[in-house]
Design brief:
The chain has helices spanning 11-22, 26-54, 70-79, 110-116, 130-133, 136-146, 167-179, 197-207, 220-224; strands at residues 62-65, 85-92, 95-102, 104-109, 122-127, 187-188, 216-217, 229-233. The chain is α+β, with helices and mostly antiparallel strands.
């Protein structure tokens, strides 16, 4: 009987021959597992794309992100949250910008703000009663009042004065001054976890032995947990894991009326 060389046989025949003769199903199992894994990745990617394409920013949305500085690391540890920076979306010259304190108070292009965060990850909060809070009259107040904050330097020492402003302080005072809203309860510096060696190091570099434990403060996490806000992006359960992958960026188009 003449044998046909294996290299001219169909691939399925060769695969079946080897599994039948040696009973080795590991290749078959690996193939099945790999196929399932690829399908799950495709489903996850599709869900993120659908989410990104259907989400629309609104003026007055508050964006949270993880920043990269040594101060941010200390804030992350002391507040037990990866979110260390935030800003509020406003409309400026027909485009969305983020009012934030970064070096000084400024209006940053929305795309640039997003890309500056670690892994471009961010979270969006919105007032639960958005239509009642963000009326056209109130939006005008926000836009106009934002100009009074421009250029104020960043406060590296987390004081509660108005001459210098850190990021969470800016958002808290901006909403209070513009709309009379206290977005979250104020705290004292001593209310945070200052026991970590790295946090102690940063505080000692800033204040020496005279740490202002009674100083009035507010953190990004405090605003993140505000009862007045709800998460609108990403939707679903939000994980605090610093190693989590970033979602696709939502559309930066104007909000749908």
């Amino acid at each position: 009987m003449k044998l046909i060389p294996e290299y001219v046989l169909p691939k399925n025949y060769i695969f079946q021959k080897y599994t039948n003769e040696y009973g080795d199903l590991r290749l078959k199992k690996l193939y099945t597992q790999s196929t399932i894994f690829l399908i799950l990745i495709c489903i996850s990617f599709f869900d993120q794309r659908v989410l990104a394409e259907t989400f629309r920013f609104q003026e007055g949305d508050i964006l949270f992100q993880e920043s990269r500085s040594s101060n941010a690391k200390a804030v992350k540890i002391a507040t037990n949250s990866k979110y260390t920076n935030l800003g509020i979306i406003l409309k400026y010259k027909g485009k969305f910008v983020v009012l934030e304190s970064n070096g000084n108070v400024r209006k940053t292009d929305l795309n640039k703000f997003i890309k500056r965060g670690v892994n471009s990850w961010y979270l969006v909060k919105r007032f639960k009663n958005y239509k009642d809070v963000m009326t056209e009259e109130n939006l005008i107040k926000l836009r106009e009042n934002s100009n009074t904050y421009m250029g104020r330097p960043y406060d590296l020492y987390y004081g509660w004065g108005d001459e210098k402003l850190y990021s969470a302080e800016l958002i808290w005072k901006f909403l209070k001054d513009s709309l009379g809203i206290e977005i979250a309860p104020l705290k004292k510096m001593k209310d945070y976890d200052l026991s970590n060696p790295y946090v102690k190091l940063i505080l000692s570099q800033k204040f020496g032995k005279d740490i202002p434990l009674e100083e009035t403060v507010i953190s990004p996490k405090d605003i993140l947990e505000s009862e007045l806000l709800e998460t609108v992006f990403p939707r679903g359960d939000v994980q605090e894991s610093a190693g989590e992958s970033a979602p696709e960026n939502p559309s930066l188009e104007e909000p749908v009326p």
